[in-house]
Automatic annotation (TrEMBL):
Keywords: GTP-binding, Lipoprotein, Membrane, Nucleotide-binding, Prenylation. The chain holds residues 1 to 173 of 215 of the full protein. Transmembrane segments: none annotated. It comes from Dorcoceras hygrometricum. GO terms for molecular function: GTP binding; GTPase activity. It is found in: Cell membrane. This is Ras-related protein RABA6a. Signal peptide: none annotated. The keyword Ribonucleoprotein does not apply. GO terms for cellular component: plasma membrane. Its main location: membrane.
Amino acid sequence: MDEDCDYLFKAVLIGDSAVGKSNLLYRFAKDEFFLDSKPTIGVEFAYRSIKVGDKIIKAQIWDTAGQERFRAITSSYYRGALGALLVYDITRKSTFESLKKWLKELREFGGPEMVVVLVGNKSDLLHSREVNLEDGRSLATLEQVSFMETSAKENLNVEEAFLHMIHRIYETT
Ligand code: GDP
């Protein structure tokens, strides 16, 4: 345990390639940006500390660094993770259709208590929308996970999505 925090959590970003995972993480972690890279295992992660009540929580958030392109996300990526942001791109229906596969993988490798937040990213590109807000909402309800649309580009809802996940992890642990 680090001395400068009360809790240390691991959370992961998952979803198809180019949905905006790295940009979301960059937005969220930017203030205290510390992106560490492990090219050998193909992951990157960033930390951010937040205060909840009188506790300091340090979230360590892992990004795939592109390894999903090779369909090679391994169980070690999920190991110990208490939360996941499952990201799709609202302008590419195929990334929404992949969610079933990602959810299956999450249920298989993540713990049963894992906090999952479904994120429809690129909400700034409304003119190219292929996935309705309602479709995201319905899937989230069906899968009993939280849901938000975000824009990493315009910095809309990004903070909210990560903080929601972190608060829920804190509440459930
Ligand atoms: P990753 O492969 O899931 O990590 O996706 P990246 O973060 O590398 O983003 C893929 C592409 O989508 C890049 O060209 C980004 O600039 C773009 N992108 C990411 N987030 C947004 C967003 O919210 N809005 C728009 N318009 N483009 C975005």
